[in-house]
């Protein structure tokens, strides 16, 4: 029988200094843990540092750094073979591995509320070191996961920025969010250890317009480009999601129109485009509410998309409910 539990003691003092628009804080965390059944004890030093500087009433900057050590979860050193799914067999070594996490973050923002202008930028880096790799093997119809003693490092870099602007005279707001992510590490499978790299780019424009009390419109979209490289580069895939919403009417009678468009590249030679549209009418009279909804006007039947994980690609299918008409009547007591 496998038994484990953990005893932990820790000290978490915090030291901070602040003057005018500058602040610095340091937290040198020290923890001690004991695994009685495994007869192991460990001491970790996990410092954290935080800086903030308000350059002006419009401009500010923040930075943080941390180092965190921890032990693997019990699932990682469970000594017996077990099924994690109907086709996934897990066999791990009865050894407690160590994990070291480093994180660094730089954040800055600029704002002019009177002009309805806002901008933020976040730069971050994450670094994880482990004692073991999870090795994937295919035996018959089963995936077999085992722990392989091999010190490895996974790195991730990300840049994220949001810019938004309001136009008071037009009752319009617009924003754009952009994210770029780069990651690299190692994978083990079929007796081979291979490095991998991933790149991911995302753009999210949004527009909201309310020109009058009886009409409003909003548009948002997401453009994503993902790419994975193992021994060779998998094709870079684009994915586009768009949504347009219109609302016409007042509190008594309202018409809602919603349209969605999905474009997905399934491979270098195949893509799929799906259009969806819904219409809804709502009428309120005293305590009564009548609603008529027409969904999936184009009668689409299927939605497909391909996604990349760190080391694999997946193509998924989703069945869509056929065109339908729904009527609802509500009474509020």
Structure, explained:
The protein has 333 residues and is mainly β. Helix content is 0%, strand content 75%. The chain has no helices and 20 strands. It has strands at 7-11, 15-19, 22-35, 40-54, 59-71, 82-85, 88-91, 98-112, 117-139, 142-167, 172-189, 192-212, 215-229, 237-249, 253-265, 271-285, 288-295, 302-308, 313-319, 324-331. The strands form 2 sheets. It has an 18-stranded mixed β-sheet that branches. Strands 18-19 form a two-stranded antiparallel ribbon. β11 (172-189) and β12 (192-212) form a beta hairpin. 4% of the residues are buried. The model has no long low-confidence stretch (mean pLDDT 90).
> Which consecutive residue ranges, at least 5 long each, have pLDDT under 50?
none
The topology string of helices and strands comes to EEEEEEEEEEEEEEEEEEEE
Kindly state the number of beta strands. Answer: 20
Q: How helical, in percent, are the residues?
A: under 10%
Gyration radius, rounded: 27 Å
Tally the helices: what do you get?
Answer: 0
Judged by helices, strands and strand pairing, the structural class is: mainly beta
Mean pLDDT, as a whole number? 90
Largest sheet report: 18 strands, mixed
The 3D shape can be described as extended
Assess the beta-strand content as a share of residues: over 45%
What separation lies between the terminal Cα atoms?
60 Å
């Amino acid at each position: 029988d496998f038994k484990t539990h953990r005893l932990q003691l820790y000290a978490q003092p915090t030291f901070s200094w602040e003057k005018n628009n500058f602040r610095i804080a340091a937290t040198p965390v020290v923890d001690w843990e004991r695994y009685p059944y495994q007869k192991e004890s460990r001491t970790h030093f996990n410092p954290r540092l935080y800086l903030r500087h308000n350059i002006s009433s419009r401009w500010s900057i923040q930075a943080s750094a941390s180092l965190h050590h921890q032990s693997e979860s019990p699932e990682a050193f469970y000594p017996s073979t077990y099924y994690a799914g109907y086709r996934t067999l897990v066999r791990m070594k009865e050894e407690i591995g160590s994990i070291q996490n480093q994180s660094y973050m730089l954040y800055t923002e600029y704002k002019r509320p009177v002009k309805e202008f806002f901008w933020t930028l976040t730069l971050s880096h994450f670094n994880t070191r482990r004692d073991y790799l999870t090795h994937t093997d295919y035996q018959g119809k089963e995936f077999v996961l085992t722990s392989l003693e091999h010190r490895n490092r996974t790195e991730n870099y990300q840049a994220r920025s949001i810019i938004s602007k309001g136009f008071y005279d037009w009752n319009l707001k617009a924003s754009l969010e952009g994210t770029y992510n780069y990651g690299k590490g190692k994978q083990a499978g079929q007796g081979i250890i291979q490095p991998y790299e991933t790149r991911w780019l995302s753009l999210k424009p949004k527009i909201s317009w309310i020109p009058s009390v009886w009409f409003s419109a909003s548009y948002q979209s997401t453009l994503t480009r993902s790419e994975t490289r193992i021994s060779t580069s998998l094709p870079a895939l684009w994915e586009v999601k768009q949504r347009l919403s219109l609302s016409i009417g007042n509190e008594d009678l309202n018409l809602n129109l919603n349209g969605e468009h999905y474009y997905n590249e399934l491979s270098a030679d195949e893509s799929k485009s799906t259009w969806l549209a819904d219409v809804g009418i709502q009428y309120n009279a005293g305590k009564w509410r009548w609603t008529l909804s027409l969904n999936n006007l184009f009668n689409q039947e299927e939605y497909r998309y391909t996604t990349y994980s760190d080391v694999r690609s997946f193509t998924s299918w989703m069945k869509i409910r056929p065109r339908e008409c729904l009527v609802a009547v509500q009474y509020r007591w």
